[in-house]
Amino acid sequence: MSEVQFKTHGELVRSRQPGHGMPGELFGRQDVFETDVDVFFHKHWILVGVTADVPEPGDVSTVDIGKASIIIVRDDDGNIRTYRNVCRHRGARLKEAGKSTVGMLVCPYHQWTYDLDGSLRHATHMGKDFDPTCRSLIPVHTRIVGTHIFVCLGENPPEDIGKLEETMAQRFAPYDLKNTKIAFEQEIIENGNWKLVMENNRECYHCQATHPELTASFLPEDFGFCPENLSEESLRALEEYKVRNAACQASWEQDGFASANVEWLDEDAVTQFRTQQLVIAGNGESQTISTKVASTRLFGNLQRRDLGDTHLWTHNSWTHVMSDHAVISYIIPLASDKTLVRSKWLVHADAVEGVDYNISDLTEVWVATNNQDKHLVEITHEGTQDPAYSPGMFSPFTETYVDQFSRWYAARLSAHGI
Questions:
Q1: Average pLDDT, stretch 177-185?
Q2: What are the start and end residues of every segment in region (Disordered) (predicted)?
Q3: Nearest Cα residue to 216 out of 294, 304, 283, 295
């Protein structure tokens, strides 16, 4: 009985056949998982929350990412700051994961006390030569884009976050996303590898059969399709789709809404992102079952309801912004076979539940879709760990972004010498 040859992480990545899925060991092995967290969640920019997580001075949101933990806090001047969740005395965690409100940040171990600007204000029994100015909390590299809080835990954060910031600041500006509140939150733990969660999000090959709530607001041509041997009826539908898209794009641009697709996804990208403004089907207003707005209190000072879906991808998040509400989701890997998916539904800060919106209409599409995706990720993860698994070929028409994600993943590992 011959021994199975052990392949390194890099060898596994390089063994992937072009246009095919990744080897199963890349989803299941502990050493691969640990390297992924270090490279893709500690050295890259990641989404960790929204400004509405900390709406008032003293509000705190603590987020754990692998062995690391960060504190997001709004200070007394209304600014958002982020720190490593490590006391500068003997390293105790200052806050548990989750949200709270504080006057100052007090270590539960020896009561070292920090101001919201990170400075150490109180430490007893340290002697006259102790210099508290050298013991401030460790800040984290942070960029706020619209309402999105991006952080990088690495010492040298990738500079191309500027491309995302420049592109999305302009697109988010009309929605005034900082003037929003969280109407609903959902946390799901999917029993699957984080890469499978992102692969599933990068394609809609599966959508028509598995997401009836979501597809109520999507035009079917946006799922991707094989252009070969289309029927006359399908060809007519395709032409109508092109005409409708062009008309909507022209109308949005005329009113000052940037709508052209922007992609920064290929192997030379570090901070990977993609944005587009999708036309919404039916009544054309929002991602709801009725395709009408779920909140009659629109974002900012918007007058138009039919602004489609401004969609943003990064390597750990996906965002949908409509005229009336936004759905923002991001992932945090917990284990090789467990991924936390956090989703937040935002509405205008002055919108009133039961008057301007109700939770059911607001959430029914993406609550259902997230639960359906949870099942799909889990059965796929199980299958990739089966001895019978052999990576299959991607559809060149509906899974091009999954293939691209695999190439980017390989390129980023190579850049780190893996």
A1: 98
A2: 1-20
A3: 283
